[in-house]
Fold:
Amino acid sequence: MYDVAVVGGGPGGLAAASIIAKKGLKVKVFEKKKVLGTPVRCGEFFVVKEDMMRLLPRVKNPEVFDVPEETIDNKCRDVRVISPRGKAFEFPLASYVLDRRKFETHLAETIISYGGEVEVGVPAHYYPNNGQPLVGPSPDSAIQADIVIAADGYPSETATTAGLPEKEYAGPYRVAVNMEYLMTDLDVEQDVAELYMDPRYSPGGYGWIIPKGERRANVGIGVREPYLRRDWQIRDLLTGFVEKNKVARAKLKGGQKASMIADSLPVDGPLSRTYSERVVAVGDAAGMVMPTNGGGIQTALVTGHLAGEAAVRYFENQTPLSSYEEAWKDQLGVEMENSRLMRQASDRLMGHAFWFSVLLRMMGSRRIADVVMCQMPRGMGPLFRLLA
Ligand SMILES: Cc1cc2nc3c(=O)[nH]c(=O)nc-3n(C[C@H](O)[C@H](O)[C@H](O)COP(=O)(O)OP(=O)(O)OC[C@H]3O[C@@H](n4cnc5c(N)ncnc54)[C@H](O)[C@@H]3O)c2cc1C
Structure:
C-alpha cells in the first residue's frame, strides 16, 4: 500500500514525488528508462530563476527553479531569433543549459533522501480497479495507491486511462514533432542560444542551436504536420537545417552529429481537465508546455510541485484533487493562455517566409522577447488577438 504512485520519472513526476516524500507520505516513482534522463530528448535550455519569475510572475514556489551547479553544462546570457530571411533579433535572457541526466538524478536522490522510492527500468500502467488504483507493469505485480500522478509525458497513457481529454487534444496544429542532434566539434558562440524561424526546414515550428559547452550544442527542429509537404521527411529537414540554412550552416560547419532523438510535444496549452477523482496529470502529460517557446521543463517542475501539494492536502484534510487545477490556473493560467493565443496568431503567417519576416521586422527585438516570454507584445495585443 502506497499513498501515491507516480508514473514517469521526468522533471514533473520527480518534483511531485519530492514534495510528497518530504511530508512523510509513502510514494513510489516508476520510470521506464533504465537511466533517468537518458537518452536526452531535450534542448536542455532552462531559464534562470530571476528571468523565469519575469516569465511566470505568479508562480508561488520559485525555489523549483533552483538547480545545483553540478547539473549545469553551460550558461547563456542572450537569445537570438533569426528570421526566415536571416535577420537577427537579440535580447537578454539568462539561461542554463542543463545536463538532464544529472538534473533528474539529483531530483531522484532528493526523493530517496526523504524516504521515497524511485524504480527505473519499469514501464508502469495505471489500473483504476474500481476506485482502488493499482500501478505497475501488470495488475499482478502492481502496487496499490490512493492517488496516482500521471507524469508519463505526451501522449499520456495514464491520463487517458483516467478519462482526461488526452485524445481530444491530439490535433495536428496542437502537437509538434521535435528532432534533435547533439553536435560536437563546433565553434558556435557559447553564451547565446539561437532560435531559427525557417519555414523550409522547421515548418510550423523553429530550429535551435543551444550551446552545451566543450564545443557541443543541441541542434534541432520542431515541426507541425499541417505545414509539411507530403514528400518531406522530418529527418531530411533537420539535415537541411544543419547543412542549408544560410546562417546555421556557417556556424555548424565541421561539426559532428553525435546522436539523434525525436519526440512529440503538446503546444496548445494545458488539457481542458487535468485531474480526476484519484489522478492528477503534470508536465507534458497535461499539455504544460509554453506554446510560444516550446519550453516544458520548468512548467513540469511547477505543476509537479503543485500536484505534490494537492496530494498532501488530500491526505491532510481530504481536499479534492480539483485544488491542483485551481492552483495551476492561478499561477500559470494567464501566461499559458497568452502564449497559446500568440501561437495561434503566428500560425497564420508561419508558412509564409516573406510575411513572417515582415511580422518579425515590425515587432523588433523587444516585442519578440515578449512573445518568447509568454507576454502579449506591447502595443500589438489587439492585432494578435484578432489574428488568433
Ligand atoms: C527535442 C526536444 C527538445 C526540447 N527542448 C527543451 C528545452 O530546451 N527546454 C525546455 O524547457 N523544454 C524542452 N523540451 C520540452 C521538455 O523536454 C518537456 O516539456 C519536459 O521534459 C517535460 O517533463 P515531464 O516530466 O512532463 O515529461 P518527460 O520529461 O517526458 O518525462 C516523462 C517520463 O515518463 C517516462 N514514462 C513514459 N511512459 C512511462 C511508463 N508507462 N512507465 C514508466 N515511465 C514512463 C518517460 O520515459 C519519461 O522519462 C524539449 C522537448 C523535445 C522533444
Summary: The first helix runs from residue 11 to 22. The first strand starts at residue 2 and ends at 7.
